[in-house]
Automatic annotation (TrEMBL):
<dbReference type="InterPro" id="IPR005467">
    <property type="entry name" value="His_kinase_dom"/>
</dbReference>
<dbReference type="Pfam" id="PF00512">
    <property type="entry name" value="HisKA"/>
</dbReference>
<keyword id="KW-0547">Nucleotide-binding</keyword>
<dbReference type="InterPro" id="IPR003594">
    <property type="entry name" value="HATPase_dom"/>
</dbReference>
<dbReference type="Pfam" id="PF02518">
    <property type="entry name" value="HATPase_c"/>
</dbReference>
<dbReference type="InterPro" id="IPR036890">
    <property type="entry name" value="HATPase_C_sf"/>
</dbReference>
<dbReference type="GO" id="GO:0005524">
    <property type="term" value="F:ATP binding"/>
</dbReference>
<dbReference type="InterPro" id="IPR035965">
    <property type="entry name" value="PAS-like_dom_sf"/>
</dbReference>
<keyword id="KW-0902">Two-component regulatory system</keyword>
<keyword id="KW-0597">Phosphoprotein</keyword>
<dbReference type="InterPro" id="IPR004358">
    <property type="entry name" value="Sig_transdc_His_kin-like_C"/>
</dbReference>
<protein>
    <recommendedName>
        <fullName>histidine kinase</fullName>
        <ecNumber>2.7.13.3</ecNumber>
    </recommendedName>
</protein>
<dbReference type="InterPro" id="IPR050351">
    <property type="entry name" value="BphY/WalK/GraS-like"/>
</dbReference>
<keyword id="KW-0067">ATP-binding</keyword>
<dbReference type="InterPro" id="IPR036097">
    <property type="entry name" value="HisK_dim/P_sf"/>
</dbReference>
<keyword id="KW-0808">Transferase</keyword>
<dbReference type="InterPro" id="IPR003661">
    <property type="entry name" value="HisK_dim/P_dom"/>
</dbReference>
Length: 365
């Protein structure tokens, strides 16, 4: 892509057909977009000159896939490699954003790599795509999430104090046997807890976008945590019947607060997206070294086209039923970030109109 594209002026003026390849060259050059193709079997990698420049190489230098990988910042290189390997294995589309180190540049350059699979004949398949410099967009995103993080943090402190005072007052009202005050305080506590859940999601979102989900692992009984979260969710939503269908005694080694956040999100979604009389069922099993938690609801369900995208930030299924239900579209994204960090998996199975089952796994010893 170093050769300048040449479009015949006459063809252009008369709007006659000129070669698509020439237009592609011109457009890619002007938009600073690199292109690449990789043989899925041999992993032979052919980058355009622009791709090499974006990764910090000279156009005349050789650049293999491993060379490109070596430029990705250490903490992101594993994820980059796994995403590419998975796309090749599953023959699926590829999208990854990663920071690369460029000699002489103080800050990382952020690149987005988009690709798709193509098969020319039975033997040969390739994955090919584009590379774009998204540093500016990424810096704006980071500034925005820093702001959200600061605001949420400032809101959390007074709300936490408010919750403590409400609980103190509630204890006092209990002693006085003042049922009216107890009822009012219990409602106030529900609202404060709802707000704290939302604020925690925003705080986690800002952490996740800055690549800062730090795990504080500890051993805890998963079945106890599940029962605690169910009780809390039933208190906050006070609408659905949430039951434990089956729960093995499993000791997990994970970040308890973050797994609690995942359970809160999945259970409150199960309640939010199903009508009040429906039951929600939680199951927790351990097989070999894998713990699986499933949350089954009898709600509106999710269409196939939405299912693949629900775990991306700000994605919400747009249907007549969901448009009346408020939400930020970040809960499931956070769940998947937290579970991925634990080397687990999260997914959904669903039949529209009948209900959904969200499942996640965690490795256990
Ligand atoms: P929010 O609920 O705030 O929109 P989430 O990230 O938690 O954000 O969920 C993303 C989308 O996934 C929701 O907007 C909804 O369309 C869909 N969804 C999540 N859970 C369920 C569920 N249990 N049943 C049906 N749809 C769901």
């Amino acid at each position: 892509m170093t050769d300048k594209a040449t479009i015949n002026q006459h063809d252009f003026d008369t709007n006659e057909k000129f070669p698509e390849l020439e237009i592609a060259k011109m457009a890619l050059d002007s938009a600073n977009v690199g292109i690449w193709v990789m043989d899925a079997a041999t992993r032979k990698f052919l980058p355009s000159s622009r791709t090499k420049i974006l990764f910090g190489f000279l156009p005349e230098e050789e650049m293999s896939f491993e060379d490109a990988l070596s430029k990705v910042a250490d903490k992101d290189s594993g994820l980059f490699l796994i995403t590419v390997e998975n796309a090749i294995k599953d023959r699926s589309n590829l999208y990854v954003e990663c920071p690369v180190r460029i000699p002489g540049e103080k800050k990382h350059r952020w690149l987005s790599i988009t690709g798709g699979f193509s098969t020319t004949d039975e033997k040969n398949s390739y994955i090919s795509g584009i590379v774009v410099d998204i540093t500016e967009k990424k810096q704006n995103d980071l500034r925005r999430s820093k702001f959200i993080g600061m605001v949420s943090h400032e809101l959390k402190t007074p709300l936490t104090a408010l919750k403590a005072y409400i609980q103190m007052l509630n204890n006092w009202a209990k002693k006085q046997k003042d049922s009216f005050t107890m009822g009012a305080l219990s409602k106030a506590e529900k609202q404060v807890k709802k707000m704290l859940n939302m604020i925690n999601s925003l705080l986690n979102l800002s952490g996740a976008e800055a690549g800062k989900i730090h795990l504080n692992k500890q051993e805890f009984a998963m079945d106890e945590l599940i029962r605690e979260v169910i009780e809390e969710t039933m208190f906050i939503t006070s609408s659905h019947n949430i039951t434990v269908a089956h729960c093995d005694r499993v000791i997990a080694n994970a970040d308890r607060d973050k797994i609690e956040q995942v359970l809160v999100n999945l259970l409150s979604n199960a309640a939010k997206y199903s009508s009040k009389d429906k039951t929600i069922e939680v199951t927790c099993t351990k097989e070999e070294n894998i713990l699986t938690v499933s949350i089954l609801d009898q709600g509106m369900g999710i269409s196939k086209k939405d299912m693949d995208k629900l775990f991306t930030p700000h994605y919400r299924a747009e249907t007549k039923e969901t448009e009346k239900i408020a939400g930020f579209g970040i809960g499931l994204y956070l769940c998947s970030e937290i579970i991925n960090r634990h080397q687990g998996k999260i997914w959904v199975e669903s039949v529209p109109g009948q209900g959904s089952i969200f499942k996640f796994t965690l490795p256990v010893n």
